[in-house]
Every structure is written in structure tokens, then in C-alpha cells.
Design brief:
There is one protein chain. The longest helix has 17 residues. The protein has a single domain, classed as Rossmann fold, CATH 3.40.50.850. It is 37% helix and 20% strand. The protein has 6 helices and 6 strands, in the order E-H-H-E-E-H-E-H-E-H-E-H. By secondary structure, the chain is of the alpha/beta class. Helix 2 runs parallel beside helix 6 and helix 4 packs parallel to helix 5.
Length: 185
């Protein structure tokens, strides 16, 4: 579905494009996701629109029990850093999370203070961090847009389920080119 409208104050939310995650095997090349996300970040900054860069604390998951267990191998601190292609700026909002969603009360409040009504989501992984962030954004009352060619997943089934089944219920799906065209209007 093409993007219907870009609100006057949207924010780009980049989910977990960090050194430790971009090397994971995914169904679409992460280099393409990084490149498209970087293009969108530059375009949002050019228009003085908020860019949110989030990272997952992969070495410190929430305490809940899972079938996979809670013990994760240590992750070197430098691997938790954002990929350099995002060209992080001091004006960017930053978020660090321990669970799947990048959105928390502090980040939500910061976005609302800036008049943000719409979140444009990109990053990793489609059926994990991006989907969880989209769900929380929807529940928080934001208009949600997922840029599907700037996300990827560990499996094709996970990607397709999120893109075809979940995101249309939470908001709109679009492409990088459609968002860039809307920003130029």
C-alpha cells in the first residue's frame, strides 16, 4: 500500500541498526536496509524532522524465562554501536532498550514534546524489533508507517507475516522512494 499522507511532523525511527545485528543472516541484504535507512535519515535531517536512533542491549535481555533461555553470550560494547552509515548527529534522539520494542515512555514523551504524530519505522528485524515498536507506537496513538524495503528479517515467513498480516492493521506500509517523494512535496 502506498503512503497516504506524511504528517506535518513525522519522525524516523531507526530500529537496531547496530554492528552486532547487521551481520546476522537475513532474507534481504542488510547492506540495502542500512543504505536506505541512511538515505531516509539524511532526508529527515535536511527538513529538520526528528531522527530517532535506537539500539538493543543484546547482552542484557529482560528477566523473563523463555524456551531459548536467558543466558546470552557477552556482546562487546563496540558491537552495540550504531552502524557508521547512519551518520549519527547530536540532534538525533537516542534510545536504548532491553526488550524488543524501541519505544518507551521517555522516548514517547520526547517525541510528543516535538509535536510528532507519525512514526516512520526502518531497521531490524521486521518481525521482532520493528513489529514490536510498531505495536507500541500504535498503542501510544501515533500514526505508524513501516518502510518495508528498509527492513528485513531472519526468515521469509517472519518477514511476510509482519508485512502482510500485522503492519496493515497497525498503520501503512511503503517504500523508501515513496517516503522520499512525500518529503519533497
Amino acid at each position: 500500500m502506498p503512503l497516504s499522507v506524511l504528517d506535518p511532523t513525522p519522525a524516523l525511527v531507526v530500529v537496531d541498526l547496530q554492528l552486532a545485528t547487521v551481520g546476522s543472516p537475513t532474507v534481504h541484504p542488510t547492506a540495502d536496509v542500512v543504505r536506505r535507512s541512511a538515505r531516509l535519515a539524511a532526508a529527515f535531517r535536511e527538513r529538520d524532522l526528528p531522527v530517532v536512533l535506537t539500539t538493543a542491549r543484546l547482552d542484557a535481555p529482560p528477566p523473563g524465562r523463555t524456551q531459548l533461555g536467558g543466558n546470552r553470550p557477552p556482546v562487546p560494547e563496540d558491537a552495540l554501536a550504531l552502524v557508521p552509515e547512519l551518520d549519527a548527529r547530536p540532534s538525533d534522539l537516542r534510545g536504548e532498550h532491553h526488550g524488543w520494542s524501541s519505544l518507551d515512555a521517555t522516548l514517547t514523551a520526547g517525541l510528543r514534546e516535538r509535536g510528532v504524530t507519525q512514526l516512520v519505522l526502518v531497521g531490524l528485524a521486521t518481525s521482532y524489533g520493528v513489529e514490536s515498536t510498531a505495536r507500541d507506537a500504535y498503542d501510544a496513538g501515533f500514526h505508524v508507517v513501516v518502510v518495508v524495503d528498509a527492513t528485513t528479517d531472519l526468515t521469509e515467513d517472519g518477514y511476510r507475516h509482519a508485512v502482510d498480516g500485522v503492519f496493515p492493521v497497525l498503520g501503512e506500509t511503503t517504500t523508501t522512494d515513496e517516503v522520499l517523494a512525500a518529503l519533497r512535496r
